[in-house]
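Q: Entry one of two.
A:
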Amino acid sequence: MPERDQPGPGADVVALLAEIARQNKVIQALTNRAERTSMGAGRSDFDAFQTALTLEREVRCRTADLEKALRDNERITRALRESEAKFRAVVNQPLVGISVIENGRFTFTNAKHSEIFGYTPDEFLGLGPVDLAAASDQPKVAEQMRNRESGEAKSVDYTLRGRRKDGAEIDIEVHGGVMELGEKRVFVSVVLDVSERMRAERETQALYDLLREQSIRDGLTALFNRRYLDASLERELILASRSGKNLSIVMSDLDHFKTVNDRYGHLGGDEVLRAVAAELMKVCRSGDLACRYGGEEFLLVLPDVPEAKARDRAEHMRAAVAAMPIRYDSAVISVTASFGVASFPESGKSRGELLAAADKALYAAKSGGRNQVRGTVDARPDGSAASPEKPASIESRPISQRAA
């Protein structure tokens, strides 16, 4: 609390001693008067003696009361001094900033509060909490102040971006309460500079995000990986089933990719994969998923897209890949890709059925001459309808039988 002058114990002692002296004078005057009265009225010496004893007893009682009051005052004064010493020890500790706010302005701040914000105690007297907040957080601080002023909140706990006297921004944690002094509301706040903690938390979150991204992304192409595809495709199928909407997948495979690796080496092949992946990303909407499905295989998940539109998009991708020159060292590499399209619910209702249908359509495109798009209705090389039998799972087919 703000320092205020307390009356020293010396003033009370002087007042009590003066009272004792005054009472003694009164008693002496009464004694003299009693003696004169008893002598003038012809009273006996015994009566005078008895009166003197009574007055003396009253003097002793009054003196004892005053001495007790003096001792109580000294005890209270010592307690006040001890309490003040404890208060100063608490508010001047070097761990947290402490402030008292009255009528929206600081009326007391401790040394740590000055250290945190860079203002002297006298400079704080003309400032309020809003003045110590960064521009972006001033509305938040003003709202917290209004909540305490209105009685809506007895205490507040929040973090904000603070602003030091030198203009530097820091992270501040505030814990505030309300004291009722008569009809006046006084706010007591404890503030901590948590900049280092927040910086560490941001770095930890950034590292977590990076690790999560690396866990779901293919390191070479930056497309989503197979692990992420499996979980996401299952989720998208559930959403499509609930909403009654279509869901299409497009499976693509680079034609004669082994020849590219044999001629340009694996580094050349990696450059081709990166370039094709970047081209596929250009045709993806925000809700689409582009994944690296295998070595040179890619898979796109297209929510709310029927098979006919998915085939149109696949054809657009096929033409873009075929027309794309890929530069590697001094060479220009050209590649083509084949595409297989399948849709929910016509081609399959589960993840395994849908992937198998798309793989079968891709196999038809490969067998039909490559560099083309096939759907489930023309999954055979001759263009006839696909067999109604349940297609074998793509995972269960031997690698030697997969589309080459």
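Q: Entry two of two.
A:
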Amino acid sequence: MFNFVDLPVSLLQIESIDRDGSRYYPVPCGKFYPSITTVTSFKKAAFFKEWRERVGSEVADRKTTRATTRGTAFHSIVEAYLKNESIDPATVDPLPFTLFQVAKPSLNRINNIHVLEGSLYSDYLSVAGRVDCIAEFDGELAVIDFKTSDKEKREEWIENYFVQETAYAAMFFERTGLQPKKIVTIIATEEGHCQVIVKDNLDYYFTLLKEYIDAFTRGRVNA
């Protein structure tokens, strides 16, 4: 059974809205903060544009839709599992359930859950988002992100994951005063492997985070 921890403050649940094709969150100060996913995606926009042109729109759309559907279903199963809910394999798609089984030993390293699929925002950074999980991982408080993939990913390909997770750590600290010690990326692959990447050099990724935000802000101004 996974244990849930009461936070020192209540976190607001904020629903995102679409503005000019990007996701924003209305925050209590009356402003709209871009989602951290929107911010980190901005830097990779040129890469994805080149990829779409190389493989063609039809293939790109099919691969993107498949990955999004797979990831959403996987997240739902993981969330139910961490909530101590029973999961009937007959009621879920086989592929996401298989990926869940691949990830299950790594998920069992989680406990004392502080946030599960919760909204966060930072007035200091002027960003917001929805974090997968903040909990203890191997006994230390961590931001934990759940991903799926066709195959294992090289770390240099997914810098944006680590930057995004660091943003959640900063938001959570600002909202609660509790400081995650590390960020954890759990990637279940269709090859049957579970890739677990743990980073504890959050200062390094926080510096990158500010660079990502600056690039996004400049891009929006110049658009």
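A: Comment on entry two: The CA atoms of residues 111 and 139 lie 8 Å apart. The mean pLDDT is 91.
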